[in-house]
Automatic annotation (TrEMBL):
<dbReference type="Pfam" id="PF26540">
    <property type="entry name" value="GcpE_C"/>
</dbReference>
<dbReference type="GO" id="GO:0005506">
    <property type="term" value="F:iron ion binding"/>
</dbReference>
<comment type="similarity">
    <text>Belongs to the IspG family.</text>
</comment>
<dbReference type="InterPro" id="IPR016425">
    <property type="entry name" value="IspG_bac"/>
</dbReference>
<feature type="binding site">
    <location>
        <position position="367"/>
    </location>
    <ligand>
        <name>[4Fe-4S] cluster</name>
    </ligand>
</feature>
<keyword id="KW-0411">Iron-sulfur</keyword>
<comment type="pathway">
    <text>Isoprenoid biosynthesis; isopentenyl diphosphate biosynthesis via DXP pathway; isopentenyl diphosphate from 1-deoxy-D-xylulose 5-phosphate: step 5/6.</text>
</comment>
<dbReference type="GO" id="GO:0046429">
    <property type="term" value="F:4-hydroxy-3-methylbut-2-en-1-yl diphosphate synthase activity (ferredoxin)"/>
</dbReference>
<dbReference type="GO" id="GO:0019288">
    <property type="term" value="P:isopentenyl diphosphate biosynthetic process, methylerythritol 4-phosphate pathway"/>
</dbReference>
<dbReference type="Pfam" id="PF04551">
    <property type="entry name" value="GcpE"/>
</dbReference>
<feature type="binding site">
    <location>
        <position position="360"/>
    </location>
    <ligand>
        <name>[4Fe-4S] cluster</name>
    </ligand>
</feature>
<feature type="binding site">
    <location>
        <position position="317"/>
    </location>
    <ligand>
        <name>[4Fe-4S] cluster</name>
    </ligand>
</feature>
<dbReference type="InterPro" id="IPR045854">
    <property type="entry name" value="NO2/SO3_Rdtase_4Fe4S_sf"/>
</dbReference>
<keyword id="KW-0479">Metal-binding</keyword>
<keyword id="KW-0560">Oxidoreductase</keyword>
<dbReference type="InterPro" id="IPR011005">
    <property type="entry name" value="Dihydropteroate_synth-like_sf"/>
</dbReference>
<feature type="domain" description="IspG C-terminal">
    <location>
        <begin position="311"/>
        <end position="412"/>
    </location>
</feature>
C-alpha cells in the first residue's frame, strides 16, 4: 500500500504565464458534448427540484442551460422520478434545449432502470456512487447491473466516489493493512487512499464487465480544499480516465465560491480536470444558475475558456464617491450576459470581448485603453465627461444623463462590426 499512498506534496509545475498543459485523458461523449482529451473543460450543474415534478424540473434545466450549463444532472430516486425523465427530455427537446441529462442514482438505481427502460434510454449518462449501490454481497451484483444497463443502452458512466458515503468495507480493509505496517500512515491518508481506490477499483471492474474505458468519467469528492487537491493529484497520476472536479459541499455564498475557486483553481492550473461543477448552496431566493456563472467565470478568468464578455471595473475609493460607475458596470455586465445566447449564434467570438468601466482619472484612461472598449467616468471633482476608448484609441467623449444607454449602444455596435461578418455567407 505504501507504493500507492497519496502523494499530496508533489505536483506538476504550471507554466509561468498560464496553466500547465492539460493532462492526457480518454475522451468521453455525453450526447453531443465531449469531455476529456482535447475538449475544453465542460461546465455542469444539477437541479434541486423534485424530478417527478416534470414542469418545475424542465423549467430549471432550461434555466441552467440558458445560463451556460453544458451538462445537467437530475436526481433519479423514485419510480415517479424515473418515469418523469423521458417526459422531461421530450419537453426540453420541444423547447429547443439541447443539453444532455445525467441521472444520479443511489441505492435503488438497478431497480429503477430495470422497471423504467425508457428512463435508461432517455438519460445521456448515469452517475453511480460505488459507496451506496448496495451493501454486503449485493454491492457487487447491483453495481454490475447498473454497468450492464449502460452497456446495453450505449451510455457513459460517471463513477463518483464520495467522502460522505465511502465504501466502509474497503476503508476497513485498508485500515487493517495500514495497522500492520512497520510505519503506519496517518489515518487521513488511509481514508484518502480508500476514496481513490473506490473510484479506480470500480472503474476497473466496470471495464472488466464490458464498459469501454472511453465511456467512464471518475470523481472522488470531499469537502475540504487541501484534501480535494491531494486526492485529484493522485487520481490523475494513477489513471487516464477523464476527471470531474468539484467539492461535494462547497457551502453557501462567498464561502462556497472561495472554497471551490481555491481548490479547482489549483488543479486546473496543473492541467487536471475535464469537467467541473461548483456545488453552491443557494441563498434563500437565489437562482440555481449562480453556480453555472461562477464556474464559467472561474474558467474564463484562468484563461481556459471564454463564455461572455468580462467587465473590468475599479473597486472605488475616495475619488469615486458617486455610485454611478458601479451602476454602469452592473448594467454593462448584465447586458452582455443577456445578449450572449444570441451573440453565440449570430456573432461568434463576441465572448472574447473585453470591457472596462473605470471610476476616475487615476487608472481610468490606462485600463480603458487595455480593453476592447473602455470608459473612464469622472471621479469626484473631475470634469463631467467620460472618454471612451476603442481598441486603445479614444473615439468619443460621453456627457449628460444618457451615458449608460450610449455606452451600451457603442458595445452593441462594436460587436456588430467586429463579429457579425463571421456568420455572413461569402
Amino acid at each position: 500500500m505504501n507504493d500507492e499512498a497519496v502523494s499530496a506534496n508533489t505536483a506538476p509545475c504550471a507554466g509561468m504565464f498560464g496553466p500547465a498543459p492539460r493532462r492526457a485523458t480518454r475522451q468521453v461523449r455525453i450526447g453531443k458534448v465531449r469531455v476529456g482529451g482535447d475538449a475544453p473543460v465542460v461546465v455542469q450543474s444539477m437541479t434541486n427540484t423534485d424530478t417527478a415534478d416534470v414542469a418545475s424540473t424542465t423549467k430549471q434545466v432550461a434555466e441552467l442551460w440558458r445560463a451556460g450549463s453544458e451538462l445537467v444532472r437530475v436526481t433519479v430516486n423514485t419510480p415517479e422520478a424515473a418515469a418523469a425523465v423521458p417526459r422531461i427530455v421530450e419537453k426540453l427537446a420541444m423547447m429547443g434545449v439541447e443539453v444532455p441529462i445525467i441521472g444520479d442514482f443511489h441505492y435503488n438505481g438497478h431497480q429503477l432502470l430495470a422497471n423504467e427502460p425508457a428512463c435508461a434510454e432517455a438519460l445521456a449518462k448515469y452517475r453511480i456512487n460505488p459507496g451506496n449501490v448496495g451493501f454486503g454481497k449485493k454491492r457487487d451484483t447491483q453495481f454490475a447491473q447498473l454497468v450492464e444497463f449502460a452497456i446495453r443502452h450505449g451510455k457513459p458512466v460517471r463513477i463518483g466516489a464520495n467522502w460522505g458515503s465511502l465504501d466502509q468495507a474497503l476503508a476497513a480493509k485498508l485500515m487493517d493493512e495500514n495497522h500492520a505496517l512497520a510505519v503506519p500512515l496517518d489515518a487521513a491518508e488511509v481514508l484518502r487512499e480508500a476514496l481513490i481506490r473506490s473510484a479506480l477499483d470500480s472503474a476497473a471492474r466496470a471495464v472488466e464487465i464490458g464498459l469501454p474505458a472511453d465511456r467512464i468519467i471518475l470523481s472522488a469528492k470531499v469537502s475540504g480544499v487541501q484534501e480535494l487537491v491531494a486526492v485529484y493529484r493522485e487520481m490523475s497520476r494513477r489513471s487516464d480516465f477523464a476527471l470531474h472536479l468539484g467539492l461535494t459541499e462547497a457551502g453557501i455564498g462567498s464561502k462556497g465560491i472561495v472554497a471551490s475557486s481555491a481548490a479547482l483553481g489549483v488543479l486546473l492550473q496543473e492541467g487536471i480536470g475535464d469537467t467541473i461543477r461548483i456545488s453552491l448552496t443557494p441563498e434563500p431566493g437565489q437562482s440555481r444558475t449562480t453556480e453555472v456563472i461562477v464556474a464559467q467565470e472561474l474558467l474564463q478568468t484562468m484563461g481556459l475558456r471564454a463564455f461572455t464578455p468580462m467587465v473590468t471595473a475599479c473597486p472605488g475609493c475616495g475619488r469615486t464617491t458617486s455610485s454611478f460607475f458601479q451602476e454602469l458596470a452592473k448594467t454593462v455586465q448584465e447586458h452582455v450576459r443577456a445578449k450572449m445566447p444570441e451573440w453565440k449564434v449570430t456573432h461568434p467570438g463576441a465572448e472574447n470581448l473585453t470591457l472596462a468601466v473605470m471610476g476616475c482619472v487615476v487608472n481610468g484612461p490606462g485600463e480603458s485603453r487595455h480593453a476592447n472598449i473602455g470608459i473612464s467616468l469622472p471621479g469626484t471633482g473631475e470634469a463631467p465627461s467620460a472618454p471612451v476608448f476603442v481598441d486603445g484609441e479614444k473615439t468619443v467623449t460621453l456627457r449628460g444623463e444618457h451615458i449608460a444607454r450610449e455606452f451600451v449602444a457603442l458595445i452593441d455596435g462594436y460587436v456588430e462590426r467586429k463579429f457579425a461578418a463571421a456568420t455572413r455567407p461569402g
